[in-house]
Amino acid sequence: MSRKLLLGVLALIFVSAGSASAQGICPLNGTSNNKLICLIPQVYGPVGLGSGTGAPLLADGHEAHFENDFVTQFAPITEAVGIQVSQLPIASPSAGITFSYDPALKTFTPSTDESLGPILGERAGTIGRNKLYEAFSFQYFDFNTIDGQNMSRLPAIFQHQPFPPPFSSNFITSCPNQTGLTGVFQNNPCFVRDFIQTTNNIDLKVQQYTIYATYGLTSHLDLSVAVPFLDVQMRVTSNATIVPNAVAPTSPNFPGGVFHQFDPAVVPGCPPPGTPCLNGTFSDSGNASGIGDIVVRAKYELYKGERLGFAQGVDVRVPTGDAKNFLGSGAVGVKPFAVISYSARIAPHAEFGYEVNGKSVLAGNFVGATAPNNDGALPNRIVYTIGADASINNHLTAAFDIYGQRLLGVPRLVSAPFTDLGKCNDGNCDVLTPGTTHANLTVIPNASYNITNASVGLKWRPVSRLVLTGNVLIKLDDGGLRATIVPLGGVSYSF
């Protein structure tokens, strides 16, 4: 890639950043949206657990009373997935081979550094004036936990909304026995005791292919660009059970004396007519491929000693990816950073940065027919890398880093067991069986947490300027959306 071509790519980045498409939403009003951002909200169909043609709940007049809790429970999960998938870690654009000026030869020659440099970390040194570094890497993310919760078994309880008087329908009564109905459920009809218990599996895999280029504008200033391409595959499955804690009056609207049940015309596997359908399995899947958010970097070496170096720089993330398909963040991100490193056979290095993010649909309110579809602020984050790379011989370098982030003001899932309102023995609820406790998750909307990984890898130079890279990223804690191990493979060449 020539200097003119590199600068042309950078110009194209900023042009494309201003050509965002119209924002899509997940209305849950019968109209489907095939974007991945709507996959979780629409796992029960284009109306979720609301009302309308094709709704999974039997249309008995009050089937939409689980909708509010459904939206409240699932929307933050979508937000958490979108925010973190859109900001995946990438390899450093720091060149494995740098160049220094040889006054005797009056030209730049490959430096005599004993190490081929870090993999995810950064070193202070620059590549050299008018020198070019090009690289390609592949990473595979198989996400299996979110905030420490197993993504194949996420529990969620959908509770009936309060239904205060007056009651207009001929089958809705004040419920003669209000035992156990306290707080917002006091003076509600008995059917509010029903709830829907679900176990949810979110199968999410991402393949990230990234092209890098670094050009030495001067002997102290590097300009870099990283262009990621992503392939996102996602499948959501929900096993749902309606728990009928109330007894319905005799009515064709309530087969088997159950207020809430799944519609056998919509939900496969229901029992024969006349028997309540209380269990259903729902699933949806989708995939998306395309360019992600391009990152432009400028790094300036402020100090270069015999071995110690110090540099400052800035990363600018441009929202070139489709945020509604989890291919990008949907917002500009700016991260100033500082790097200190020491050149030796064992070369320690450290990088610290603070990323400020703009607003994105991923953090907005976009689920539901009345959602304002506004953009919300993506969380800012502290990013750091501390590690060392060690020369094993002239052709092989081992690299180790602790790669950490602290996300600020981001939704977080936590365990919140749910105790139901108890089970009635008849319509009057003459005898009430006390409620039982069930696994459930809730969301802390404005939390902060750490994401910490260990990075271990090798860089091998088979010929003078060609470097091959292999690395694994290993999860060390449970914060955020995580894969246990993330493999990376790469190749680079310095000109």
Percentage of helical residues? Answer: under 10%
Count of DSSP H/I helices: 2
- Indicate the mean pLDDT: 86
What topology, given as strand order, has the largest sheet?
3-7-8-10-11-12-13-16-17-22-23-25
CATH class label: Mainly Beta
Give the overall shape, derived from the CA principal axes. Answer: elongated
- The rounded Rg comes to 28 Å
- The CATH topology: Porin
Give the DSSP E fraction (strand runs of 2 or more residues). over 45%
Contiguous uncertain segments of 5+ residues: 1-24
Question: Could you name the CATH homologous superfamily?
Answer: monomeric porin ompg
Q: Can you write the helix and strand succession as a string?
A: HHEEEEEEEEEEEEEEEEEEEEEEEEE
Please count the beta strands (DSSP E, at least 2 residues each).
25
Structural class: mainly beta
User: What count of structural domains?
Assistant: 1
CATH architecture: Beta Barrel
Cα separation of the termini: 10 Å
Tell me about the largest β-sheet.
12 strands, antiparallel, barrel
Assembly type of the chains comes to single chain
Question: How does the SSE layout of this entry go?
Answer:
Elements: H1 3-17, H2 67-85, E1 99-102, E2 107-110, E3 132-143, E4 145-146, E5 149-150, E6 154-159, E7 195-216, E8 221-243, E9 279-291, E10 294-304, E11 308-318, E12 333-342, E13 346-357, E14 359-365, E15 374-377, E16 380-393, E17 396-415, E18 418-419, E19 423-424, E20 432-433, E21 437-438, E22 441-460, E23 466-475, E24 481-482, E25 485-494
Antiparallel strand pairs: 1-2, 3-7, 3-25, 4-5, 4-24, 6-7, 7-8, 8-9, 8-10, 10-11, 11-12, 12-13, 13-16, 14-15, 16-17, 17-22, 18-21, 19-20, 22-23, 23-25
